Amino acid sequence: MMVLPPGKWWNLRLADLWPYRELLYFFIWRELKVRYKQTVLGVFWAILQPLLIMVVFSVIFGNFAKLPSDGFPYPIFAYVGLLPWQLFARALSDASQSLVSNQHMVSKIYFPRIFLPTSSVLAGLVDFSIAFVILFGMMAVYGIAPTWRWLALPLLILAALLSAIAVGLWLSAINVKYRDIKYITPFLVQMWLYATPVAYSSALFPEKYRPLLGLNPMAGVVDGFRWALLGQEVNSSPLILVSLVTIAVLLIGGLIYFQNTEQTFADVI
Fold first, then answer.
1. Of 49, 178, 227, 248, whose Cβ has the fewest other Cβ atoms within 10 Å?
2. What are the pLDDT digits (tens) for 90-106?
3. Is residue 137 a part of any domain in this protein?
4. 146 and 230 in contact (C-beta within 8 Å)?
5. What is the pTM of this model?
6. Would residue 18 count as lying in a domain?
């Protein structure tokens, strides 16, 4: 296939990716094999990690700090918030290093480089699906039944993935030129966790200021998960809408920046 030179900065040319779609599937499969190769716990780590964090949050924030949990038992309140957050955090960390980790490929052959951070994000769906199964048991224990709101889950999962892809595109492209991103990303993820209502409820913020919390794209996603899975009655609609707009802006900006710097990756990396 002919490799065309970059067009206008606003022309994303996403249709050009379709002929390479099988390569994306390969990258996802390779990411999964590398992730679980020579591991003791393997896929069980996808269950243990959110469970252990949920226990720590329950002890510190639920028992000692007595943070409100919107009328729900704190363990399941925290676990529902951790599900999309773990998907985002792991995907963001992997995506930010995806180009540098595959520099031998980036510098030698042509393929859509956007597939590398994207595959790192999409591979996280396996861990997410495994951890989600535990939620069914917790809901049965606490007597929480599924409702029609569950129909919104695919859209909320998509929002979490797009959020990770958006930020991952920015960080992976910047990381090619400035390797400090490798050290900044763990700190960024940690601070982002504190800024996201995972361990606490968004209801702690005055309602008139709550939409500002939506400037954090994951704030709306976490609140959306609690609304869909637990039937949370906190008025989160403005927060969620602002988060969706923020995700769209970050994604479009990330695609434009990635495309306009992609031609320099092979030389700089």
1. 178
2. 999 999 999 988 888 88
3. yes
4. no
5. 0.89
6. no
